[in-house]
TrEMBL record:
Involved in the modulation of the specificity of the ClpAP-mediated ATP-dependent protein degradation. One of its GO terms (biological process) is protein catabolic process. Keywords: Hydrolase, Protease. It comes from Arenicella xantha. The gene is clpS. Belongs to the ClpS family. This is ATP-dependent Clp protease adapter protein ClpS. NCBIfam families: PRK00033.1-2 (NF000669), PRK00033.1-5 (NF000672).
Length: 112
């Protein structure tokens, strides 16, 4: 028996042209939900401190959530979105607000 490995037979291997990996990761929307108890001021604070919106943009998103029931705070990759949701939930609990935050796949960013 030979001490050397079998020679590799490359005849059966299909050669594929190298392609750069261009696929974008799936994105998720982080949503705030309206409630009757969380103060408008606290929601604006959340949107500025956790989502880095300007005071004007934060007030606009807060009013959208207040009037429509839910609204998008931002769109992120999965782990970043999960962290934002945790930060909102924890900050709201610390301040005794029932503010709810959730995430959903951003269908607009699928495919393409
Ligand atoms: N509806 C609340 C109020 O009138 C304000 C509010 C806005 C609460 C957005 C939650 O995600 C929210 N005080």
């Amino acid at each position: 028996m030979s001490d050397y490995p079998e020679p590799i037979n490359n005849d059966d291997l299909a050669l594929e042209t190298a392609r750069p990996k261009l696929k974008r990761p799936p994105l998720y929307r982080v949503l705030l939900l309206n409630d009757d108890y969380t103060t408008m001021e606290f929601v604006i604070d959340v949107l500025q401190s956790i989502f880095h919106h300007s005071e004007e943009k934060a007030a606009q998103i807060m009013m959208h959530v207040h009037q429509k029931g839910a609204g998008v705070c931002g769109v992120y990759t999965r782990e970043v979105a999960e962290t934002k949701v945790e930060q909102v939930v924890q900050y709201a609990q610390q301040n005794q607000h029932p503010l709810q935050c959730t995430m959903e796949p951003d269908s607009d960013s699928d495919g393409e």
